[in-house]
């Protein structure tokens, strides 16, 4: 996913805070849909899943207090609704 700059953060305070700390590992081109603007009919492979070892290699369970370098990449494929 392409990192968002501070000037491109959304107006929604909760989403802005989330995006300042976390970035989606996969963008719309990789998933086939935009998690923030999902189609009315989901794609056949929705929601996308990943093998546990792949996710765990990107996650250090002993590091719960720091965000390095500036944000963490997250595996997010579920549509976001408010």
Provide tags for this entry.
single chain, alpha+beta, two-stranded parallel ribbon, 23% helix, disordered N terminus
Short description:
With 82 residues, the protein is α+β, with helices and mostly antiparallel strands. Helix content is 23%, strand content 7%.
Taking pLDDT < 50 over at least 5 consecutive residues as the criterion, the unreliable ranges are: 1-7
What value does the Rg take, in angstroms? 14 Å
Pattern of helices and strands: HEHHE
Q: How far apart are the first and last residues' alpha carbons, in Å?
A: 22 Å
Overall mean confidence score, pLDDT: 76
What global shape is seen? flat
Commentary on this structure:
The chain has 82 residues and is of the alpha+beta class. It contains three helices and two strands, in the order H-E-H-H-E. The protein has helices at 13-21, 28-31, 52-57; strands at 22-24, 72-74. The protein has a two-stranded parallel sheet with strand order 1-2. The longest helix is centred in the first third of the chain and has 9 residues, at 13-21. The chain is flat, with a radius of gyration of 14 Å. It starts with 12 loop residues before the first helix and ends in an 8-residue tail after the last strand. Mean pLDDT is 76; it is low at 1-7.
List the SSEs and their pairings.
Layout lengths: L12 H9 E3 L3 H4 L20 H6 L14 E3 L8
Parallel strand pairs: 1-2
């Amino acid at each position: 996913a392409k990192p968002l700059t501070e000037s491109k953060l959304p107006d929604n305070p909760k989403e802005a805070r989330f995006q300042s700390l976390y970035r989606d590992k996969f963008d719309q081109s990789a998933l086939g849909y935009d998690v923030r603007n999902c189609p009315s009919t989901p794609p056949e492979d929705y929601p996308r899943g990943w093998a546990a070892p792949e996710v765990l290699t990107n996650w250090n369970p002993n590091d719960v207090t720091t965000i390095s370098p500036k944000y963490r990449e997250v595996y997010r494929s579920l549509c976001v609704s408010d």
